[in-house]
Every structure is written in C-alpha cells, then in structure tokens.
Design goal:
The chain has seven helices and ten strands. It is an alpha+beta fold.
Length: about 280
C-alpha cells in the first residue's frame, strides 16, 4: 500500500478568521448605538478614535492577545540573592498590550484627565465604554487592570484625603507608560467569597498612627499592582460590612522598600489568562 499526502485544504474549507478586519467598521450595531446615545458633536469627534481602535483590535491587538494567552504570567517570588521580591513576570506581548491600553488610548485616564486623545475636556463615558468594548473583542483580561486602575483613582477622588489624592491620582491616571502606577481592589477572602462582610483581615493601629493589616485575600486580580485598595476590619470593629474599613496599601513603602504583602501563588485560570490573579497574604 502506497502512502500519499492529503490534499491541501481548499480556501473555501478553511476556518474563517476576523484577523485584519476593522472591528468598528464591521459592527453596524455598535455604530448605530454610538450614533444613538452620543450627541452629534461627540459622535463626530469619537469616530476617528473608534475606527483606530477597531483597526487595532482586529489586527495588532488580536495578534498580541493570542501570544499572551499562550504565555501567561509567572511568579518570581525570590531574587538570585534569596530576597523576597514577589515579582510577576509577563511575556513581552502583554507589556505591548498595556502600552496600547494605558498609553496609546489612555483608557484608564479618559474619565480623569482633560485632553486625553486630544479631547476638549474629559472624554465622555459613552466614548470610553465604546472604546473598551472594541478592545475587549480581542483582549478581555487586560481590561481588568485598566478598569481597576480607573476605579482606584475614582475611589480616591471621592473618599481620599488631599494627601492621598496628590500622591496617587496623577500616577494612576497618566498616559505616560513609564510613569504609570496600576491600581486594584482586593476584597475576596476564603471565608466569604463575594460576601465581603465575612472578611477576617484585621487592621491594627500603632501608637505612631501607622495601620498594619493581617490577613489573606483569596482572589487578587492584577496581582502585580502598585497600590491596592483593600478591605480590613479595624480591631474591635463590629461584624458585617459596617465594621470594615478601606485601606490604601502600596507595594512600596515611602523609603522604597517592599511592603509586607506576599503573593503565595498565581491562579491557574480557565479564562483571561493574560492577566495575573493571585492569592495574597
């Protein structure tokens, strides 16, 4: 019996691909919705940015997302000298996607800074969400760090002291990637899951006014964050959500040394593998 090679797959039998399409121009429903919910001037100004994001999502971002998904982040707990560093190491494709999201399109800054994308004033929420929707068509995982950085700045704007606002908001909302600090919110614990009122993390205040937190957070998205807004119960506080406080916990202390949190491991997830979720003590 002679062996023969199979014939090549005919073009009409190949799996279809969206690679190379402009995800905005191809999405008539999104175009209709944008024109419906935006006023005429906003829609006209937004269109070039939506078209640009649609092109990126259908090409450059789609390619990078496929690489990042095949090369998920890893945890480097110690350096060569045995010092604890808790560094999350990403594939270059993920870092390239970060630059697209945080810097090129300024997704975490749109609601906080005037002039992002050349906009007069702040970009309307409808435009931000349309851009994020397009981005998510190719890369969903990175939108978690983007949105949590955005949310950290918003929480500080509403509830932070003047000192905290001045120290953190400019770096959380910058579009200069090398100056950017990323934020997150760490709430979930083994005891309660989504029931944050069951949290067991304790906060104690030293005589000098310094707060110190003890506990574990069980599902910590954006584990490589620069600053976490974290729930803890001040010692002696009542049970449930009313007894909780929110604390800003930086990765680095004012003297540049590493803060006391450790990343125990990264989650082995089914979806959004590009972004690092971990368990933190």
């Amino acid at each position: 019996m002679s062996l023969t090679s199979l014939p090549p797959v005919a073009a009409q039998d190949a799996m279809p691909t969206t690679r190379g399409l402009n995800f905005y121009l191809e999405d008539k429903n999104l175009q209709f919705l944008c024109e419906l919910v935006m006023d005429a001037a906003t829609f006209e100004r937004a269109c070039p940015h939506l078209i640009a994001m649609g092109e990126v999502a259908g090409g450059e971002l789609d390619e990078l997302a496929a690489q990042a998904d095949k090369n998920p982040p890893t945890l480097r707990a110690f350096d060569q000298g045995g010092r604890r560093v808790d560094e999350v190491v990403f594939h270059p494709s993920y870092k390239a996607m970060e630059r697209i999201a945080f810097s090129r399109f300024g997704l975490a800054a749109l609601s906080h800074r005037d002039g992002v994308l050349g906009w007069p004033g702040r970009v309307p929420q409808t435009v931000k969400y349309a851009l994020s929707y397009l981005f998510a068509q190719s890369e969903f995982g990175l939108l978690c760090p983007v949105n949590m950085t955005d949310s950290a700045a918003r929480m500080l704007e509403h509830y932070g002291s003047p000192e905290l606002k001045a120290a953190w908001i400019p770096r959380l909302t910058t579009t200069h990637f090398d100056q950017l600090l990323q934020g997150t919110q760490w709430m979930t614990e083994k005891t309660g899951g989504s029931d944050v009122g069951a949290a067991t993390t304790i906060a104690r205040r030293d005589n000098d006014g310094t707060w110190r937190l003890w506990g574990d957070k069980w599902f910590c998205s954006n584990a490589n964050t620069d600053v976490a807004l974290t729930l803890a119960r001040p010692e002696g506080g009542p049970a449930g959500t009313r007894g909780l406080g929110m604390f800003l916990v930086p990765k680095l202390l004012p003297d540049g040394s590493k803060n006391g949190w450790v990343i125990n491991r990264l989650k082995d997830k089914f979806g959004s593998r590009s972004m690092a979720s971990g368990e933190v003590t």
